[in-house]
UniProtKB/TrEMBL annotation:
Domain spans labelled Leucine-binding protein: 52-376
SUPFAM superfamilies: Periplasmic binding protein-like I
Organism ancestry: Bacteria, Pseudomonadati, Pseudomonadota, Betaproteobacteria, Burkholderiales
GO biological process, one term: amino acid transport
Keywords: Amino-acid transport, Signal, Transport
Family affiliation: Belongs to the leucine-binding protein family.
This protein's name: Leucine-, isoleucine-, valine-, threonine-, and alanine-binding protein
PANTHER family in the record: AMINO ACID BINDING PROTEIN (PTHR47151:SF2), LEU/ILE/VAL-BINDING ABC TRANSPORTER SUBUNIT (PTHR47151)
Keyword Transport applies: yes
Transmembrane segments: none
Length: 403
């Protein structure tokens, strides 16, 4: 550059006013303003929240969407309460967020969802909704040391896969099947029982447990039939069952099939009551079975009735006020699953997935559903079951069984 142009360049630079540079220069001339700005920036940095992502997987569309949405709503109630308390974990303010994904109650889709959560390194997962989906994805979470807490899957196999990452928020089918078989034999005095299942991991599992317990008590399985979780016409199955003259019919499956089955039982003049696990113990059953429901269904929940849960009445009131609908079934268990994750994070003073897994095996707290503490397998240490029936479309608890 020619020396004669240096003066021009200097003049140009002196006349140029960059907004940021100009702002900085002015503030540097005012020490009090500079100090105030520095303090503001420091405070903002100190209060910056670390986002902690929790995955949720369930059926958010399709025939079982009422279960999936029910659980998601329970989780969101817990998240709102936790975040409102302005939690600090490991010395850092944190905010919990939910990544809710639809697995369609399909093991193949569930695998895709689980891989997404693993790739995104979520801190924990609540789900999956069904036994078949929960079992199918358990290894994916175990390999990444991510806790999988199901609020609804009851197959005993789920917590017997040899992983330390599987946790269940309610009683399993071993507990439910035994409670139901005793009630059918001792209270209903049904000694001749037919068993039908939908061939899913849940349906077949609880039906097998129930049948084994019936036979162990000296009673008789007079028919063993099968359907699918997509069927709605049970004419052939019920015709064969009726010919066996059972005093009770057990169905291993969900309310989506259980409601229509109960209607068709009455159509074929089958007077025996329908028996089932938690999949039939839902608010939706009154819509699905209609008038055939009253006094004709006996089902077992994997916990106390909502009215008898320690935090049940308050939870039910808040749930209905927030969503304008009653609890279907699994929302309080999903709520407690989120609270278990939070308590574990506080105990570990960490939101890292492996630390949460480790702490979940040590966490103890009083949840909405009862005392929450897990055994070595990830099952509740003190499970409970409630056997209920329906009158005028309303679910009525009959008896409670606890460990």
């Amino acid at each position: 550059m020619a020396f004669e142009n240096i003066g021009f360049l200097k003049a140009s630079l002196e006349s140029y006013h960059h907004p940021v540079l100009d702002f900085t220069e002015k503030t540097m001339r005012h020490p009090l303003l500079t100090a105030a700005l520095a303090l503001a920036f420091c405070c903002a940095a100190a209060h910056a929240q670390t986002v902690v992502t929790i995955g949720y997987a369930g059926a958010l569309t399709g025939a079982q969407a009422h279960f999936g949405k029910d659980s998601e709503r329970g989780i969101r109630l817990a998240l709102d309460e936790i975040n409102a308390s302005h939690p600090v974990i490991g010395g850092k303010p944190v905010k919990f967020e939910l990544d809710a994904q639809d697995d369609g109650a399909d093991p193949r889709l569930a695998t895709t969802v689980a891989q997404r959560f693993a790739d995104n390194r979520v801190s924990a997962v609540i789900g999956h909704q069904n036994s078949g989906t929960s079992i199918a994805v358990a290894r994916i979470y175990a390999q990444q040391h991510i806790a999988e807490l199901t609020p609804s899957a009851t197959s005993p196999e789920f917590t017997r896969l040899g992983f330390d990452t599987t946790f269940r928020m309610l009683a399993n089918d071993d507990f439910l099947g035994e409670a139901l078989s005793r009630y059918v034999s001792d209270t209903l005095h049904a000694k001749r029982v037919a068993v039908v299942d939908d061939r899913t991991a849940y349906g077949q599992g609880i039906a097998d447990v129930f049948a084994k317990q019936v036979q162990a008590s000296g009673d008789t399985i007079v028919a063993r039939e099968y359907t699918t979780d997509k069927a709605f016409d049970f004419a052939a199955v019920l015709t064969r069952v009726k010919s066996a003259n059972p005093q009770a019919i057990f169905f291993g499956g969900m309310d989506t099939q259980g409601g229509p089955m109960l209607k068709q039982m009455r159509h074929y003049a089958i007077e025996a009551p329908l028996i089932g696990g938690d999949g039939l113990c839902t608010a939706e059953m009154s819509k699905l079975a209609g008038a055939a429901l009253d006094g004709n269904l006996y089902c077992a929940d994997g916990g106390r009735s909502l009215a008898k849960m320690p935090g049940g009445p308050a939870f039910a009131a808040k749930f209905t006020k927030t969503y304008g609908e009653p609890v279907q079934l699994y929302a309080p268990y999903a709520y407690d699953a989120m609270m278990a994750i939070y308590h574990a994070a506080v105990l570990a003073q960490s939101t890292k997935a492996p630390d949460i897994v480790s702490a979940l095996h040590r966490v103890v707290f009083q949840g909405v559903t009862g005392s929450i503490a897990f055994d070595a397998h990830g099952d509740l240490r003190t499970p409970a079951a409630t056997i209920s029936t329906y009158h005028a479309g309303n679910k009525t608890a009959l008896t409670e069984v606890s460990k």
